[in-house]
Structure formats: C-alpha cells, structure tokens
Amino acid sequence: MDRARQIRQRLQQVRERIARWEAAYGRRAGSVRLLAVSKTFPPADVLAAAATGQVAFGESYVQEAVAKMAGIELALEWHFIGPLQSNKTRLVATHFGWVQSIDRFRIARRLNDQRPPDAPPLAVCLQVNVSGEPQKAGVPPAELPALAEAVAGLPRLRLRGLMAIPARQPDFDAQRRAFARLRDLFEALKARGHALDTLSMGMTADLEAAIAEGATLVRVGTGIFGARPPRRG
Description:
Blueprint (H helix, E strand, L loop, with lengths): L2 H22 L8 E5 L5 H8 L5 E4 L2 H9 L6 E4 L8 H7 L2 E5 L2 H10 L7 E6 L16 H9 L4 E7 L8 H20 L6 E3 L6 H6 L4 E4 L1 H4 L8
Helix pairs in contact: 1-2, 4-5
C-alpha cells in the first residue's frame, strides 16, 4: 500500500473512533476536532492528510515546521504544541495560528509583542501540568488563574482554552480522572468570566477517555502517520 493511501485509511479510522465516543458519551457529532500531529513528518504526508479534508496540523519543532509550511501552499491551520524557547517566539508568532503550550507569561508577552499587526490575534491555550510531574512542562494548577488573567489581557493574543499531557495511566478510569482534573480547571476559568472554547487533551492511546471527559480537540500523530521517524540534526 502506498504511503498516501495508508494515511487516508488511518485518518478515517481515527475519525470513526472519535465519532463512536462522541455518541457513547452523548457528545454532539462533530464536537471533537482532530489535530493531526505532523511533527517530524514530511510535507507529502501533510498533503495526503489534507486531501481528505484535514485542516489542523500540530508541530513542535519551529525551524522544521516553518520549512514545511514553505513547501505547502494550502491554507492550513497550524498549531504549535511543543515547548517554546524565547529565541523562537518571533517565528512562531509570525507563522502559526495557534500556540497550545504557553505556561509562562514571559513567553506569552513575547508572542503578543511579535505578532504581526496585520494578522489576527494568535489563538492560545495554556498548558497545565495536571499530574505534577517535575520534568514536564505546564503551569501548576494553583498558578493557572493568575496566568490566565495576565494572558487574557494581551491584545494580540486570544485565550481559547487549556491543554495538558497527563502522565500515562494504566487503565481507562485512571485516564479519565487525569482528564477530569483539566476539565474542572477549564470550567473554573469559565466561571471567572473567561470565554474559553478549547479543551485540548487526549492523544492516540487515550483519546477515548479524553472525549468522555469533555475534550473539544484531540491530538493524534502515530494513529495517523505511524511511527515517528528520527529527527535529523
């Protein structure tokens, strides 16, 4: 089977998984968006997915992503989902429509200041460390309300929601509990007056539990593109 056909089949399988779990948990059909995580994969793979109607793609490596975008003429929705260093913010502010991994106000302010004035506000999610893992990025839950208030005040950003990558859990119920913590934080911010619409949680191995707990966007890479190739350089 050729590579493009394989990607198309896998995409269809992921979409069917999402639809089944929307129905199982009383979610409106189409209420869970799919972000195809295309980091480390070539432009041809993105084009194969886009040919099926996939619009939103996630990247984690700035220079690789910008080079990939340059080779794709389609109007796609690019999400930056990886750790972001200060020296890379200008490229991200210029080339991406979304950033899902903000956990420090300093980074948010740089993105705001470097967002081109003729571009729409950059859509952002705050990444939360719901599992308390010291090695993992994300704002601690106790610090989330203050960060949300600060980011919401930046005029060139639009705070859309929350993102998390919980620690791997051994079973479905444990996965649900981790995602429920992020959902509770999401609802608490909405109760404070933040107009949030995006709860980004769940990946290939645990998207069902995420949908059960209210995810509005799931991030799937290997389930669409297969095993990730090693990065060069």
